[in-house]
Automatic annotation (TrEMBL):
PANTHER family: HYPOTHETICAL MEMBRANE SPANNING PROTEIN (PTHR40031), MEMBRANE-BOUND METAL-DEPENDENT HYDROLASE (PTHR40031:SF1). The chain crosses the membrane at residues 57-75, 87-104, 124-148, 155-173. Signal peptide: none annotated. This is Metal-dependent hydrolase.
Amino acid sequence: MDTLTQAALGAAVGGTVLGRRLGRKAVLIGAVLGSLPDLDVFLDYGDAVANITEHRGFTHSLFVLTGLGTLLALLARRLATARDISLGRWWAYFMLCLVTHPLLDVLTTYGTQIWWPLAVRPSAWPVVFIIDPLYTLLLLVGVGIALIGGNAQRGPAWGLSLSCVYLLFAMLAKGVVEHRLAPVLAERGLEQVPRLVQPTPFNTLLWRVTFIDGERHHESLVGLLDGGTPPMVETFRRGAELEPAAMALEKGQRLDWFAGPFLRYEVREIEGRETLVATDLRLGFPGFYAFSYALAIREEEAWQPLQVTEMVTADSRAQRDALGKLGARMLDAQATLCTSHFVSQHWVANVPSAC
């Protein structure tokens, strides 16, 4: 999630745990602790693929944060003037303010390395968008009550409780979407293919579904307010014929570890050279993909890896009114929104008649 939300979460947790004893200090220190894991954004690994795949890495590890929280609890117990606060209470304070950050990040699409340094894929079970105004507002109201009114526990506790209810609603909404998708997947024989169900930007009412079927990937939008309207599925090419070339590269393998199999491959002309580009299909929206990477250039019929990979602008026909159309689709199943309208047509493999 964004840094403001993480700071608000840390503040709410801090006030709930020690607000009665420390007052506003518990809220303010909690905000700092809640933001701490995101300091890794200032680390530059000198390579685009490394930067994207190392983010939410060791600073988000439950092992690292457990060690840090324990150290801070021992120091606070020894040095703080509040001698009546037990070591266990200090430990709960620091631990909860720190570890709720990566646990919330796990509920977004990006992927969080909570088990670092174990060699496992980043964890992600997306139920909220990376920026969710309603979730953030619930926390900020509780924190604001604490800072303005002086009761540093009650406001944060209520804000934290309501935000957890919102997350529970999002989890239930995801279950409803997956239930509505089941007949569509069964009809197409896609029950076992990799799929990703995630909310569209800034809400939990309209969900984007991406599923990978070998050389193609499919997209569908499913809204909680769709009623009996069946989901519409659009099909796109993903350049799978280039996947072996990408997987032969160290940086291609790293991207596959980070986002596979939700990757699209293409050859683009960049600075007069044929360049192999990989795009993360998870992050963004068809026509608005946020992360594409130049991995190699073609030299004498062979792909030569770039020593330093680069982020490149996604090839799209993005329209400025796309978010407005998403908002209309969220509230009305009859407001047809075709993602194929926002991408270059050479990527489109099948367009439903409704489009």
